[in-house]
Each structure stands twice: as C-alpha cells, then as structure tokens.
Write a structure and sequence with these properties.
Length: about 90
Amino acid sequence: MKPADSGWRDRAACAGQDPRRWDVENLPADDPDGAAARLCANCRVQVQCARDALVPVDITRIVGTGHLEAPDLVELSGTVRAGIIT
C-alpha cells in the first residue's frame, strides 16, 4: 500500500502536541478505547489519519538500518490513530 500524502498532518488536532499523549500506555487502563476516541473526537483529518495508519511502518527505515537489512514491517504502532488504538 502506498503511503498517503502527509500534508494533512499539519491540520490534525494533535499537530504540535507531545506525541507521547497518544501512546497506548498513557491511556487510562479502565477505558482505553473511550479515551482514544476522545483524543481525536474533534479532529478534521480522521479519515486521512486512519488511512495512513493502515500503512505498515518499516522500523529499519526509522532507525536508519534499511540499507543494511531487509525491511522489518510493523502493522501495529501502539498509538492512537483517528480515535482508534492501532
């Protein structure tokens, strides 16, 4: 799947905020799904974010070892994307 255009990220409700806020381990244990939905409830780019969340992340590119080894694709990111825990 081709990565989506990322220009939408500048219009996201979370733009410029501490990204750790969207880490799954920072959600309340008693209602993680509800908390995830509330984080993104008023965001105008939920569709683009959800579409982008479907693209697997290549960890080797993030850590800079992609030129040395085969891609290591991760389907789930452990973060909230478009109000859903991914």
